[in-house]
Amino acid sequence: MTETAERWVPPDADVAELRRAARDCRGCELWEPATQVVFSAGDVDAALMLIGEQPGDVEDREGIPFVGPAGRLLQRAVEDAGLARDELYVTNAVKHFRFTLRGKRRIHQTPQVSHVLACQPWLAAEIRNVRPELIVVLGATAARSVLGAGFRVTKSRGTVLEAETLVGPARVLATMHPSAVLRLRGEEHDRAYADLVADLHTAGEALRRTS
Q1: Would you say the pTM of this structure is higher than 0.90?
Q2: Number of domains composing the chain
Q3: Nearest to residue 52, comparing CAs of 128, 125, 129, 119?
């Protein structure tokens, strides 16, 4: 039976303490086949927080979020949008890699709702610690965790919203996950990448207007 991570999240902990505590999390079954927990990276005082779905194969092996193919695409998009990666805080809604084995390959599987709910206490603690001025949710899983099951990225993509989130009212912008851009080819890929860059640029402009 899936529970949540709440009892593993230390109260009043900073991000470094949360990261250490997450190594022992047994809030859902994903910890067992995964190599390790993949918590977060970046500036713990960042004005902009980016939240993805879950670590992938490369992230699971290295223990750092967004260092695989999707992460490299995100890094390029961040730079093209005029943002500095070292000034961002990046994390995922789910902290362990969910996969199925196909021969020796580990194939990504979308986290279930139960996995998203199990990890929400970690994500809520991160948001409360970092206190970003703006949250960017990358894809449907991150949006579901932060904004609830009824939110649709396709309907609200690229718009800065004043929204009710899992930690209360906050400014949020939703966009595609970079892995979704990677799966496209040709003109579709180019358009999706341009949209991702434009959304990240919108996020940066929104921060500049309030700084």
Answers
A1: yes
A2: 1
A3: 119
